[in-house]
Write a structure and sequence with these properties.
Alpha-Beta Plaits; 3 domains; 6-stranded mixed beta sheet; 4-stranded antiparallel beta sheet; about 475 residues
């Protein structure tokens, strides 16, 4: 029996490629970001399939693909041909991306314990990265003639992917994917065949349904403030989890499970009635995702993804000890203006996500604060209460501004007139005045509930509850006319 080799490919430079697509909201530059993100998502799916198809090998040899990585099993006789194939695809990917994206591939024999095989693959990756630095490839993005093929990304990919039925590949342009027939093609419609590419590509439709809605249009569909934003999420410590696996079969199975979770669940969730006209998918990876849309849909969507992810890990990782890979952190960034570049907000969301993962795990950064998921649920309930007070009880929205200022400045901010909130009893007095016209038991319970949720128990000092401040900001956005 012929010796088998493992081919492990990675895409490097994805984040710089995406955040460098600037421009005004709804402009071609935003379409470029969409096209670049979808192209990167598809590239690690199509290239390993094309490799097998060109060599006439069975689809079953594809261990995993997507999420910026792939793993393929090949016979030893194909080593040199595979290296040449992947080098050509890498050079073309660098050309299309203006030198920002590199495809590096490690190859080793499938012999010995998986921990040893994994180390050989890692050493091969390190050697290639060092060789690229020495050869000067690292500085290729700064060359004057290095320009991404944005006409291709904005036109061919972004403009057509959301309704395309297949993606094709040709040897003449090994990194230029074609949405339609080619020498080799694969269905993008799930359920048509065993080799279908599962891809989250939902896009909120424009008013006429002819194309994806622009970010500024999604802002107009929000309740309250007309704003849009970006939601990004990333699994906590998945690399640690993968390093602890004992066999390549476990590695492949877990990698495929995570990729299919994000691609499948995102597509289904974003198609639900409360999200389908408000949210569009930027990408779904092997352990992360990004969506953009109306601000009021992003937080509920984040809560639903976290709920499904928790259920997913409980079912599929119940035999694996430790929390690694079982929790997810997210971040929401809102666009300051409707015409803010999508890439700029995407980059801010990435920064907020890094802050959240550095400070804690299994949490979300939203509306200026990092919260555990259970505290976000508390904030959602409190937001509903505050919004009800404004809409049903005739309370002034100024009350929300006063409370927000009170917590931000520690009570040293003026409210309406000359009133200040500097002591806990002043907060209680303000609530009593607000509810003065309502003497029923429910109103009194409401006052006690708000006091308990927003204030610490100290009699001498008001302590900020992050969930309370998030709820205030949430309610302010939600009730804005």
């Amino acid at each position: 029996m012929s010796v088998q080799i493992l081919v492990h490919g990675k895409l490097e430079g994805i984040e710089p490629l995406l955040v460098s697509a600037g421009g005004a909201g709804g402009s071609p530059e935003d379409a470029t970001l969409l096209g670049r993100s979808h192209w990167v998502t598809l590239l690690s799916e199509v290239v390993p399939r094309a490799l097998l198809a060109e060599f006439g090998l069975a689809r079953v040899l594809l261990g995993s693909g997507g999420g910026g990585q792939f793993l393929v099993v090949l016979p030893e006789e194909s080593r040199q041909a595979a290296r040449e194939f992947l080098d050509q695809a890498s050079r073309h990917a660098r050309e299309l991306s203006g030198g920002q994206l590199r495809m590096i591939c490690a190859i080793t024999e499938n012999l010995g314990d998986w921990s040893v095989v994994r180390k050989r693959l890692a050493d091969d990756f390190d050697r290639q990265s060092a060789a690229a630095a020495v050869s000067g490839e690292t500085f290729a993005p700064f060359l004057e003639d290095a320009r991404p093929a944005d006409d291709y990304f904005a036109g061919e990919i972004s403009g057509r992917l959301w309704q395309a039925e297949s993606v094709g590949w040709s040897p003449e342009a090994p990194a230029r994917l074609v949405l339609g027939p080619a020498k080799h093609s694969w269905s993008l419609v799930s359920g048509r065949g065993d080799d279908d590419i599962v891809l989250a590509r939902h896009a909120a439709p424009s008013e006429d349904g002819a194309q994806p809605a622009e970010a500024a249009a999604l802002a107009q569909r929000a309740q309250g403030r007309r704003a849009w934003g970006v939601l990004r999420g990333d699994v906590d410590n998945l690399r640690v989890r993968l390093r602890r696996l004992q066999t390549v079969e476990e590695h492949v199975r877990l990698s495929v499970l995570y990729k299919q979770f994000f691609a499948g669940e995102l597509e289904v969730l974003c198609s639900q009635p409360e999200f389908w006209r408000k949210v569009s998918v930027l990408y779904s990876g092997g352990d992360d995702f990004a969506v953009y849309g109306s601000w009021d849909a992003l937080i509920p969507l984040a809560r639903e993804i976290e709920r499904l992810f928790h259920r997913f890990t409980e079912e599929n990782l119940k035999d694996f000890p430790g929390p690694e890979g079982k929790t997810i952190s997210m971040a929401v960034a809102l666009a300051p203006e409707a015409d803010t570049p999508l890439a700029a907000v995407y980059a801010v969301a990435g920064q907020r996500l890094e802050e959240a993962k550095t400070a804690d795990k299994d949490c979300i950064h939203v509306l200026g604060r990092t919260l555990e998921w259970k505290h976000l649920a508390d904030a959602a309930e409190l937001k509903d209460t505050l919004s009800w007070m404004v809409s049903e009880m005739g309370s002034s929205r100024q009350f929300l501004h006063e409370l927000a200022a009170f917590y931000r400045k520690g009570g040293r901010q003026w409210g309406s007139g000359e009133e200040r909130f500097e002591k806990p009893w002043q907060f209680q007095r303000r609530l009593n005045r607000l509810l003065a016209g309502a003497r029923d038991r429910e109103s009194q319970k409401l006052r006690v509930h708000l006091s308990n949720e927003m204030m610490g128990k100290s009699a001498a000092q008001v302590k900020l509850r992050p969930a309370g401040l998030v709820a205030l900001e949430w309610a302010r956005l939600f009730t804005e006319v």
